[in-house]
């Protein structure tokens, strides 16, 4: 059996690409210098894969910002507003990614969305009627040749035609159907070019196929690939799926002339059944995704080999692979100097997964049952040290139905809180974090390295908090925040303070563009050691008469942005985390914090891709977990929650059932579509749809914000509307933050003058 990788991480093991790109943004290096760094990263990781013996090594999995954006540029999807800037090709590319505000003009970025059920975000390309969809770029060919010059034959990876068309945003009158011929033409030309270059395989990524598909979807898929495959040359085509199984279209896939089909045996609950019950055609390769590309636990060889055995029995020509791109896991354990062996022995990051593929390949070729490497691996799954805590398990077992219900019910609380807080109409607030400027990060780094004392570390953060409170008062915001200066990340920060967690030094995973996160690892049962945020929040509250929001991350988000355990259910882990956060909520309340925001930024992210699983597999425990966190507070205490993405139109009732008092969410990049759903569903929770996009350095004008608010008022009753940015301000600079918030407050005042 041979081995294959779907895609590799790309920011660099030490985030070299991130640092180079940000230097380019600051005009500290040229486009050529940025490309040099990119080339070095590609070279290094192609060689790592080659040296590990991977048979199918991907190319064009690399990106300076995002693969969907690359695919848009490849196919000439560059809206006129970006072309009109008249800037260089790379600045046009980054204008689409981040927006542009400067001498050449002022344009917003493409929307950004979660890549299926991951914490990676892709750019949503916009196509309008004037755009001619055609093969226009050369990136996949250039990178293929670059690898070839290094002596490495790669398998170029391109977002597949179906997934690409499904994820585009159509802003003109045309729909996906109208582009089928053009897409077939463009992909056929792409294949012809690869054929001429000597490529043996091309991988088309089609994760969209793991959704529930309609008859129209399937017919679009068939139409696209009948067309593309009809122009096939010698280059072989791999249809690669991931993030689930393809139960709605397995037979349709097999009926088409693909040379290889990639299926996910980790997240695809029905994959094995689909293959064993329906068979797999002779003469084609099955790329079996058996090594988890999303989590960091070592592969259980015995389990995997038994799947491979079943495929062998059916005489299926199998390639052993990862379940999805390794983009979602850190680079390597080699850079972890602090984690003891007793823990690391259980983990495999991207590079270690290459070793796993090699071991599985070796084992699958021999009588594996007696192999030493197998015994060693099996021992890891017998028991793990330090992971069980009887007290935590007992507390979880004692939770009863009443613990999920907050009383009095919403409308009574709403009236009590209006009386209690006396906030003006359309209250203004922010989402929590203020700019994580270089001095803030340097303070944290110095403390971590032992260069300053704890007292110095705290004193610095207190100064920042005081300045932040003063700034918010000057700007005239109504509900203040302390700025989150003490947090490296909204999840890692809590992970570091909870029993049951481990963390890495360099376990970076790309979240979007140049932004990375370092997901903590849930090793064992989780509990709170001591209050985690109370001192920061009470200090901030002591500086102002205005309400200071306590700021916590919710249990579902903590779970979703950590690497979860696989030995207990996600539900059980979440319950443990919920109890820890509940304790923190009650401590904040007891210490005079009257408004507490519990961020559930990632709640939508792990909603199962198939509708039939939404409640049974997820919402039935995720929503109660949030309720468990806040059900113990008094009527006067106002509970806020925040979600980064507004794609919850379809689960709007579940969101309302979280029973928060106020929810703030991203809306500005998605044309406020969510507003209709709020109105139609008679959403009870007070809402603050974000009035400007914080992912871009643009400063929104008062008029722009006011017009967003006017639109909101058409759908949301005035007594329920809050005014706030999209998300936290940690990635922004100080000057643009002040200017944007001043405009936000000015727009809210105009709204009050006109409506009250
Ligand atoms: C809200 N979002 C979040 C998501 N997931 C999370 N886990 N957290 C989130 O907040 N998903 C959806 C969105 C994604 N949005 C973002 C936004 C911004 C970032 C981001 O800015 N990430 C930072 C890294 C943040 C961090 O952990 N910083 C640490 C470490 C700082 C550092 O780089 N230290 C250096 C040493 C420096 C020195 O001076 O010596 C090092 O460790 O090498 C900290 O501040 O302490 C980023 O830079 O990408 C992410 C997601
Ligand atoms: N409170 C967090 C939420 C981000 S989703 C912040 O402001 O950064
Ligand atoms: Zn957010």
What is the top-level CATH class of the largest domain?
Alpha Beta
CATH architecture of the largest domain: Alpha-Beta Barrel
* Helix proportion: 40-55%
Distance between the termini: 72 Å
The structural class is: alpha/beta
Percentage of β-strand residues = 5-15%
Shape: globular
Q: Mean pLDDT across all residues, rounded?
A: 96
Reported for the largest beta sheet, the result is: 8 strands, parallel
Here the CATH topology of the largest domain equals TIM Barrel
Family: Belongs to the vitamin-B12 independent methionine synthase family.
Enzyme class: transferase
EC number: 2.1.1.14
Function: Catalyzes the transfer of a methyl group from 5-methyltetrahydrofolate to homocysteine resulting in methionine formation.
